[in-house]
Amino acid sequence: MRPIAILQHEAAQGPGFLQDYLLGHGLPFRLFKPAQELNGPLHARDFSGIVVLGSNHSVHDELPWIGAELQLLQDALEHDVPVLGHCFGAQMLARAMEARVWRNTCANIGWSKVWVTQPAQQLMHLPGQATLFHWHYDTFDIPRGATRTMYGKHCLNKGFRRGRQWAFQGHLEVTPESIRAWCA
Question: Cα(146)–Cα(150) distance, rounded to whole angstroms?
């Protein structure tokens, strides 16, 4: 099995729970740090999936690694490689799908409730409401052909799905240790 590529952009924003899950289920993965080491993957088809984590940057920042990552996500869409985006990763996936990404009217930082749409409840086996950790300033439109999976009070679009591509405008990967590191 090809490994799952995980793109980590900030030292304190690692894969957390996601890494624990992958290790616990014997799923191979490779961690990349494109913002620090400029070592991001070039071809999506080299991986069984791509996970894009959060960042302190905006998807509109003109940095070489952001442009390269956008190309990687477009390659993933072209070759139907599954993508999971958390926060910045969700915004990058929306942008790769040609949806608008912009500054939300207010920052969404901390624990807050989101509502899960009926189809997403069935697919993910989730209740109608969940409390997630958020730390973002930007938001996105739901891309053409995608369906909203979650929505919130202070930020309407909290998630979407299109085929094998999933985006969450929250941090499902956080652990107590990672939240302490972010706040420090």
Answer: 12
| pTM for the full predicted model | 0.94
Give me 164's structure tokens: 């094998």
pLDDT at residue 144, rounded to an integer:
98
Question: H/E element holding 181?
Answer: helix 176-183
CA distances from 172 to 46, 88, 121 (A): 25, 13, 15
| Tokens 């920042």 belong to residue | 61
Percent of the chain clearing pLDDT 90 (strictly above): 73
Helix (H) or strand (E) holding 19: helix 16-24
**Token output for 173:** 């990967």
Name the residue among 184, 182, 183, 127 with its Cα closest to residue 10.
182
Q: 3-state class of 35 per DSSP?
A: helix
Residues whose CB falls within 8 Å of the CB of residue 153, separated by 6 or more in sequence, listed in order: 112, 113
Query: Both ends of the chain: CA-CA distance in Å?
Result: 37
Q: At what angle do helices 64-78 and 88-96 cross, to 10 degrees?
A: 60
At 179, list the tokens. 């939240």
Residue 175 and residue 129 in contact, taking contact as beta carbons nearer than 8 Å: no
Least confident of 40-49, 101-110, 111-120, 171-180: 171-180
Tell me the residue ranges of DSSP E strands in 92-180. 101-116, 129-140, 147-152, 157-162, 165-168
